[in-house]
Every structure is written in C-alpha cells, then in structure tokens.
C-alpha cells in the first residue's frame, strides 16, 4: 500500500470587515469601544471642571485670608497711632505750668515711619472751661483728650464718615487728666 499524500490545505479564510476599525471586528464590538470612549471623555471633563472649581474656591479663600490679615494689621496700626496721639496731647498738657487752657481744641497730625499712612485728630476739652475746681483744698482742672486715628482721612482729619472703602481702619481712644 502506498500512502496517499494529504491534500493541500485550503487557503486561510480572511475575516470580512464589517465596520471601519480593526480587521475582524464586528459592529457590536466597535459600538462598545465608542461608548467607553464617550464615558471616559465625560469623566475627564467632569474631573477637569471639579478641579477648576476647587482651584477657584482656594484662590477665593486665600484672597479673603489676605484681606483679613491686612485689615487686622491696619486696625493694630490705627490703635498705635491713636495711642501716640494721646501721649502727645498728654505730654503737652502735663508739661505746661499751672492749669492752662487746652493747648489745642482740635489738631490733626501725620505720624512718621511705620504709622505714616495714618492721620490722628486730637481733640482737647477742659473742665471747667476757665478757672479750677477745688477738691480737698487742691485746685484742679480736668482735661479730656480724644484721639481718632484713621488711614483714609476726610479733608485731612479723622473720622471719615463718607468712605465705604473695605481697607478703612479707624480707632478712637480717650483719656482724662487732672492737673
């Protein structure tokens, strides 16, 4: 017996292209890929919008914190400026001999150095306006000093009631002296 050779194998079958894309893919398989691409794109868009909103919120928070810190610094400077005005007025009254009239009724001044952006308006009132009051045999005159410091003066004096600036800072201190 002789062996019969095997018949040649048929040519391999080629897959038909049903849809543009990979060879051998079917329309159903292609549709799943397109849907997942759309989902990924929407997910990325959502993440991008969420990160942009988070960045905007953080920038807004940072700005509010900086404005708050600047306001606190301005308030502390206004206090120091008003205190310096009181000290100046007190020194002028206490250094004078006797019980003089107020050395000024209203006086505005600009302070040097770190407080140069503040104006102080000093007001002095003497009680009694003339003469003295006797207490336990001692003649006395009383002085009330009012110091108002602000960083945006109106016509060179404080307080400025017309401003609506958020950076406006004002402090008012008073002191009573007897001499």
Q: Could you outline the blueprint of secondary structure elements for this entry?
A:
Layout lengths: L26 H69 L10 E5 L8 E9 L5 E3 L2 E3 L1 E9 L19 E9 L1
Antiparallel strand pairs: 1-2, 2-5, 3-4, 5-6
In short:
The chain is an alpha+beta fold.
Spatial extent as radius of gyration: 43 Å
Strand content: 15-25%
Overall outline: rod-shaped
Total strands: the figure is 6
Q: H/E order of the elements?
A: HEEEEEE
Q: Taking all residues together, what is the mean pLDDT? A: 85
Total individual domains? 1
Strand order, sheet with most strands: 1-2-5-6
* Amount of helix: 25-40%
Distance N to C terminus: 147 Å
What can you see in these coordinates?
The chain has 1 helix and 6 strands. 39% of the residues lie in helices and 21% in strands. The protein is of the alpha+beta class. The termini are far apart. The model has no long low-confidence stretch (mean pLDDT 85). It has one domain (27-178). It has one helix at residues 27-95; strands at 106-110, 119-127, 133-135, 138-140, 142-150, 170-178. β3 (133-135) and β4 (138-140) form a beta hairpin. The longest helix has 69 residues, at 27-95. The strands form 2 sheets. The protein has a 4-stranded antiparallel beta sheet. It has a two-stranded antiparallel sheet with strand order 3-4.
């Amino acid at each position: 017996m002789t062996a019969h050779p095997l018949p040649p194998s048929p040519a391999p079958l080629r897959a038909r292209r049903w849809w543009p894309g990979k060879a051998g893919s079917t329309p159903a398989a292609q549709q799943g890929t397109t849907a997942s691409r759309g989902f990924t794109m929407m997910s990325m868009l959502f993440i991008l919008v969420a990160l942009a909103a988070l960045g905007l919120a953080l920038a807004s928070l940072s700005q509010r914190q900086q404005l708050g810190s600047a306001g606190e610094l301005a308030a502390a400077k206004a206090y120091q400026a008003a205190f310096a005005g009181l000290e100046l007025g007190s020194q002028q009254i206490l250094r004078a001999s006797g019980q003089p009239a107020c050395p000024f009724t209203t006086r505005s001044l600009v302070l040097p150095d770190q407080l140069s952006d503040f104006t102080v308006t000093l007001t002095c009132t003497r009680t009694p306006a003339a003469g003295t009051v006797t207490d336990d045999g001692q003649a006395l005159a009383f002085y009330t000093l009012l110091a108002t410091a602000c960083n945006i003066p109106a016509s060179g004096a404080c307080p400025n009631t017309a401003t609506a600036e958020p950076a406006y800072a004002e402090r008012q201190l008073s002191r009573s002296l007897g001499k």
